[in-house]
Amino acid sequence: MKIGELATLTGATVETIRYYEKEQLLPKPSRSAANYRLYHEAHIERLQFILHCRTLDMTLDEIRVLLQYRDKPDENCGEVNVLLDEHIKAVERRMKELAQLKQHLLVLRQKCTNEAPAESCGILNALADHSCHD
Predict the structure, then answer these.
(1) Which of 27, 63, 106, 113 is deepest in the core (most CB within 10 A)?
(2) In this structure, what is the dihedral angle of CA atoms 32, 39, 2, 67, given to the nearest 10 degrees?
(3) Do the record's keywords include GTP-binding (predicted)?
(4) Does domain 1-75 have CATH number 1.10.1660.10?
(5) Model confidence pLDDT, tens digit, residues 61-85
(6) Where are the domains of the chain?
């Protein structure tokens, strides 16, 4: 199948597929006589694996490690467990950061409770005051 068909089947964009090839996450496809990229079932499965990992907010480096183990099914998966444990900790840190961000935004939102001229908007004034860290 051509790249457009692969994109349609997986929900990825053509640009994403090319990027993953460039990053060597997807193997180079064969080429047709007209020099079109030709993809196979293995490309679909691998791309779906990558896309699933991305929905879990995994980095390309993390995915690269997971793919190495996926490509060598006889190896011990201990490093996969460690990788996932580290990713869980990173998600927990990000959740705390997002909770703090939400709190800052809620405090900021309270700076302007009704419509007023922009020059007297409490939100805009608080954002301009870089020393303000409520």
Answers:
(1) 63
(2) -140
(3) no
(4) yes
(5) 999 999 999 999 899 999 999 999 9
(6) 1-75, 86-134
